[in-house]
Amino acid sequence: MSIKLTSEVVRVAGESEILVSIDGERVKVEYDSLASPRSFESLVTGRKYWEVPYVVSRVCGVCSHAHFWASNLAIESALGIKVDEATSTLRDACNKLQILQNHVIHLGFLVLPDYGYSMRNDKYVSTLLKVNRVVNEALRLLGGRLTNPNVYVPGGFTEDLKQPVIKRVVNLLGSVGNDLRELANIILSIELPELEDPSPEYVSLRNSPSVTVPVEGPYIIDSSKNTYTVYENYREIFVERYLDLSTSKKCLMTGEKVFHTGARARLINYLKDGSGLSSELRYLIARYEPLFKKNPFSNIYAKIIESLLIYENLLQTLSSLDTGKLSRVRPGNSFSGGFGVGVVEAPRGLLIHYYELNPEMRVIKADIITPTVMFSKHIEVSSEALIKGLLASEEGRDESLVKRFVEALVRAYDPCIPCAVHVIKMKR
Amino acid sequence: MVKVYVNNNEVEVSQDALVIDAVEKAGYEVPTLCYLKGLFNEATCRMCVVKVNGKVVPSCRFPVFEGARIIVDDSELRRLRRVNLELLLATHEIKCWSCVRKGMCELLSLSKRLGVEGIPVCSECPLRGRSCLVLKGFPCLGPLTVAGCDAECPRRGSPCIGCRGYIMSEDVWVRALEEFYKDNVSLNELKSLISFFWSYLPQNLYRLVREVSNVEY
Amino acid sequence: MSEALELGSGTRKISELIVRVPLASCTLAAGASKVLESIEKALGKLGLEARVKKTGCMGLCYLDPWIELESRGLPPTIYANVKPEQAEGIIRRYVEGDLSGALAVRSEASGFKGVPTLNSLPEWRLQVRYVSRNCGFIDPESIEDYLRTGGYSGLKKALKLGREEVIEIVRKSGLRGRGGAGFPTWYKWRVAYEQRSDVKYVICNGDEGDPGAFMNRLLAESDPHRVLEGLIIAGYAIGASRGYIFVRAEKPLMADRLEVAVRQARDYGFLGEKILGTDFSFDVEVYRSAGAFVCGEETALIAAIEGRSRPRQRPPYPATSGLWGKPTVINNVETLAHVATIFQTGLDEFTKYGTERSKGTKMFCVTGSVRKTGVYEVPIGTKIRTLVYELAGGPPDGRSVKAVQVGGPSGGCIPADLLDLELDYETLQSYGAIMGSGGLVVIDNTNCMVDVAKYFITFTLAESCGKCLPCRVGVKVLGDILEKVASGTATLEDLELLRELGESIMRSSLCALGGTAPNPVLSTLRYFKNEYEEHVVMRRCPAKVCSRLVTYEIDPARCRGCGQCAKNCPVSAISGQPGKAFKIDTSRCTKCGQCLIICPFGAVVKG
Lengths: 428, 217, 607
Hints:
Chain A is an alpha+beta fold. Helices cover 43% and strands 18% of the residues of chain A. Chain A contains 13 helices and 14 strands. The longest helix of chain A is centred in the N-terminal third of the chain and has 27 residues, at 85-111. In chain A, 50% of the residues are buried. Helices cover 39% and strands 15% of the residues of chain C. In chain C, the strands form five sheets. In chain C, strands 2-1-3-4-5 form a five-stranded mixed sheet, covered by helices on one side. A five-stranded mixed sheet of chain C has the order 11-10-14-12-13. In chain C, a hairpin with a 7-residue loop joins β16 and β17 (583-584). The B-C interface holds B 42-46, 49, 56, 58, 61-63, 76, 79-80, 83-84, 87-88, 90-91 and C 312-313, 315-316, 467-470, 473-474, 477, 500-501, 504, 507-510.
């Protein structure tokens, strides 16, 4: 028997498609992006160093801060600029706010409907919108524009973020603590479908999502079993593959390991030496950790717990931050060319930017690896596992039910399709 | 006292009142530029035009009369105001980057309200003067970009990258390129930034940039 | 004209000769003063005793300079286009009874010795000489001449009536302003009359500024007393104490003659304290303005007398608050002449001409591409075709009428296929033109309509006072766009902009100058859109006028190789060898057109 199940996944950022072929015992899932190639890497080629972050932050409207920060990091490290701690903390805060915003939106509007929550249920929708609004406002205050940030350039912030602004952000965030917890209660009361993670390999930046300053290469990346020191060797660790008929690539770890990155991975790795958490969070993480390691669906739990964690962390760091020391470093005149790598934790996982500059400080080579590229293979293998499980049971007879489960799984990963940044190479 | 009708609302005003008084009393607003109550009402700017019994008249000069039917706003009046404002701006050197009226200019705020094209981001930028980004050597596209974003990027110290599109008026470009950019920023960098969002500049503007910079584009 | 015959009656001899020489600005420009000199010389040489009378002009400009000879036993005879050296021969032959070379005889009966009567000429027969009845016959500087033709009888009649009755008569006549807008004259008078004010003014608007319009000048130079009489009647009707005659300083003869008339009227008691024994006192001053087109607008005219010539927003209308804040009536020269004539002749003589809504006659200046340029007085409602073809003789051979610009720079172009329109205020307005002061410029097929519109816009642009925005900048922008069209760089969007902008300027300008300035553009755009589109899309000027769209070439078949063109080319774009056909280098040619003018063989052609 050979069944082909094709479904366009809605409620993800962008357009994507899963193609399921069932042939007897063998199940094959292909997860594909339908987005057209966007060629960002070649767009920035030839541009002056300071223009690059403006361009690449437009890769994605959802995590523009992550791209902005990663590109700034890469360029700074190429130019040999070291920014001060307050600057790094503020950039990290921007990124965290974006993670928070992304998680809230994703959980509320993309995931909850899968579990029977109607958008007409104003109780949680209004809570969601309130959190979203406050986080957006905080992001606007710190990071300039909501999408496509504009407040810092390689070397530091363009405007002096004054203490009252930070204080306002802290006050704003303080006003949504209860709403966030309320939301957490709703999310954590969801009953997740059973699924065994077929490839329990979790990759994240060390110490993420806690404070990650000073952020400069080389970057220490934890996986479940190993620890990698990543800089110019990032290509050896993250191996990308081109797929036929798709504009996106699939990424595997060294030794062709399928891995997961994102909220779930961050929490699992963070707990290895997690410290400085409130007892409430420590309890929550401890309680759900076994589930995180086992079930890919639990990514949504991880997201809300991470949101709480980030929220707590932001309040702590921002209220103790002294912005009086913000300095702006300008690149020196003598530059003989070089390259730089920037790695940050984007809302969906690891994000790697690489730029090579010529002596005129213009980009001659750019490379971006986005989180969706990294975990899309993981989506495929866990979907295969899910379908195999379903087929073994009674429910597997119902094609539409299979479709629904698979789609729910894909959405739980929160894939982001606009991340298709590479230039596609045609193979004939 | 005479009774007049402003947009069909009955208003009573004194015998020697002007149409603009009646309009204001009825709670409506007419844009004015040259009118200064009690000091100047020569009706030269023609911004305050309204219709009285179907006839287009300047409200700052026209006296009221019993039963006058005044229309403050309709598509034709708005078009007349817009055309007049465009004419006014046609002779106006839009050099907002060096203007002393820091965003307090009635001309531009009115232009934006009436949808007149050709007003640069500089008109909204609080950095004008000594802290202007171009004067610091950044190729900020503020002088060439259509206003309306409230100068969000220059406001926070990062140069305008022109995401709202370019001003079509060639004069604005000539002035900006020859009087402003030329002495302050590297034109090569400026060109690079122009290609950011404006890869397909119209031929005339494209030619201007090339002429000013004398470098192959 | 029988009156003219009797002018010198009394003691003269049988052989007494009267020579009339018209001395108005137009005939003087054509050389009338030299003709006058030569006539005086000839009379001395021939030993003839004659009276030389200096008259005004009768408005047939193509005859200038003409003279009229009159003698007992011979009909008064008109000779056209007289050259100074011909004067002696003409007089000698006339005295001998030989009328050869004469244009017409002024006789009620049939012609005389093969010379047709003036009335048999279409350009005279079709006219109704109502206000211009004296033009060309009487001496404008002589009040006696005017009195002899019934002058000031109208004033005497009016002074016997009450003021309201005078206004009532004007109302009954249906007289409308002859200055352009056609506003009922009586209404202005009535409003001014009803104002309670110790001082009131009347102003005669003689600031005739339209290119191609000169009927006011002609009237005031040839029959100034008639204008003055009308002004005094107007002053009486509203109870004014003072009148002004506003004349351009560029028309000195007109101002001089009016001043002479004012002096003479004062001497005869028609002006001054207690006129003709009534308790009406009135005096007139001739005001010479520096001459700006905008001063024809009544508020600007008032401001000019006050010392600053810019229009202001109406209301208040001058009739309620005009000169120095006092009620003021402003009437055109021709309107006032009509008033005087109405009171002289009675209502019926006036109201039997004209249409239902506009009574009487109107003087029209027909210029441009016609054979018989001149001023023609015809009843309102006469067809444009009659005026252009029958009176003015139509365009010269080989040309055809393309359009008629009615009303000067404020008016619009009426295309050739609408020539059967009747000339009255409402009809013209509905076709995008205005009556204006009554200038008709005939445009033939060698003219480019874009160029015509450009000409008028350039005129208005120069004459705009710059007070209000739409006129000051809008007209300039219109001019810029027309320039773009004429140079082939415009787009079809520009044409749309031209229309939209023109309509906006008309709607929102302060005074009538801006309110009518876009008329030439809008009317040409309306009737000759294809010509505009030809410029824009095909980059071609169909009439081969717009120099940027025209190329000059030398036809080798006709070129004799004289080299004149090459010598005169300012950019040395023409080269060749003597005796062989020359060539124009189109890449260097600036299209100045010098070669076309200079070539003696017509070998340079426009392409």
